[in-house]
UniProtKB/TrEMBL annotation:
Lineage: Eukaryota, Fungi, Dikarya, Ascomycota, Pezizomycotina
Gal80p-like C-terminal domain boundaries: 130-270
Species in which this protein is naturally found: Tothia fuscella
Listed InterPro entries: Gal80p-like_C, Gfo/Idh/MocA-like_OxRdtase_N, Gfo/Idh/MocA_oxidoreduct, NAD(P)-bd_dom_sf
Gfo/Idh/MocA-like oxidoreductase N-terminal domain: residues covered: 4-111
GO molecular function: nucleotide binding
UniProt cross-references to Pfam families, sorted A to Z: Gal80p_C-like, GFO_IDH_MocA
Name of the protein in its database record: NAD(P)-binding protein
Coiled coil, from the record: none
């Protein structure tokens, strides 16, 4: 089968964030990636590409190119709409880095009536080895029906009280790129992938708007009941999540996630925090406490051999490299998560009044 022809948007050597170069390019340039994909075009790129690769400055011109099968967007979130809308309109398949757009309204407008399978959203941590292992444990009945779960996470890759100059837009909620929309959203998505969605009624337990120049909360704490849908999750199981900007107490892990069941409890610990797509080479630990034997067992997990050959950020960018009978997150998944975030910000705004 001929390789899928890819156009990359935002592969820039001067970008403030470099996910296209770090998260996509290594896989696409690997022997495994080249067997399935071919980079044929670039848009808004400063990357030096072979002469065979077309370069575009206009999204409409790229969308009109019949020799492009898949458009991959890696730009700042507030340009996702303008750079991908023409390709959606042209009927092309589109892969968009999370968030889908800067807010729920723009996300809905961007997708229009597009079928969910026409696009991919990069909520890729839900197909990581760690998350797949947790789903396997939940379904295996090792801990019985889930009764509750608690997540404590810190956005530990950024300072507590400062931002790099190039990321000052993180304080402007209208742009759509900030620790809640990016870091928290990625984390809560893989939590939901393991345990299911929340029921509509959710209590907001606290907030912190101490940085007056920022429209984004520094602390998000939620408590809710999990909806029915996932196997081995009790009818009234609860989820409690605390997300805080900055580093944890010195020496403490940046993510501790427990899943409490009738017969046992699972604990996931990540030293660097909830960014599992960036820390797969670090000692992320999964432990299971069996109540009957009162013993704690460490659950082994590992990346595949081909993933180990790639830089850590690129290990989850293998489009189509998902295990059998599992799918990459699609456009409908993106809207579900955008709706949840829209609700959280609405609740946060109501508390400020």
């Amino acid at each position: 089968m001929a390789p899928i022809r890819i156009a990359l948007i935002g592969l820039s050597s001067a970008a403030k964030t470099s996910w296209a170069a770090e998260g996509h390019l290594p896989y696409l340039q690997s022997a495994r990636g080249k067997s399935s994909y071919e980079i044929v075009a670039l848009l808004n790129s400063t990357f030096r590409a072979p002469s065979s690769v077309k370069t575009y400055g206009d999204p409409a011109e790229l969308a009109a190119d019949p020799d492009i099968d898949l458009v991959v967007c890696n730009t700042r979130v507030d340009t996702h709409y303008s750079t991908t809308a023409p390709s959606f309109k042209a009927g092309k398949a589109v892969y968009i880095e999370w968030p889908l757009a800067e807010n729920l309204q723009r996300s809905t407008e961007l997708l229009g009536n597009q079928p969910s399978e026409k696009g991919i959203i990069s909520l890729q941590i839900r197909v990581s080895t760690v998350v797949l292992k947790l789903k396997e444990l939940r379904a295996s009945d090792r801990i019985g029906r889930v009764l509750s779960s608690d997540v404590s996470a810190f956005s530990s890759i950024l300072p507590r009280d400062a931002l790099p100059e190039g990321l000052s837009y993180f304080t402007d909620r209208t742009i759509g790129g900030n620790p809640i929309m990016i870091g928290y959203a990625h984390m809560i998505d893989y939590v939901h992938e393991v345990l299911g969605e929340l029921t509509p009624k959710v209590k907001i337990l606290g907030k912190d708007d101490s940085i007056l120049t920022s429209g984004v909360p520094d602390l998000l704490a939620i408590h809710g009941q999990l909806a029915k849908g996932k196997s081995n999750v009790g009818d009234k199981a609860t989820l409690t999540v605390t997300w805080r900007s900055g580093q944890p107490f010195k020496g403490s892990p940046g993510l501790v996630w427990t899943i409490n069941g009738e017969k046992g409890e699972i604990r996931i610990t990540s030293p660097s925090g909830p960014y599992l797509q960036l820390t797969l080479d670090e000692p992320i630990k999964i432990e299971l406490h069996d109540f009957e034997s009162d013993e704690v067992q460490e659950i082994e997990w590992d990346c595949k051999d081909w993933q180990k050959e790639l830089p850590t950020p690129a290990r989850l960018s293998g489009k189509g490299e998902v295990e059998k009978e599992k799918e990459w997150p699609q456009l409908g998944d993106a809207l579900t998560r955008m709706q949840e975030l829209d609700m959280r910000f609405a609740q946060y705004d109501a508390q400020k009044l």
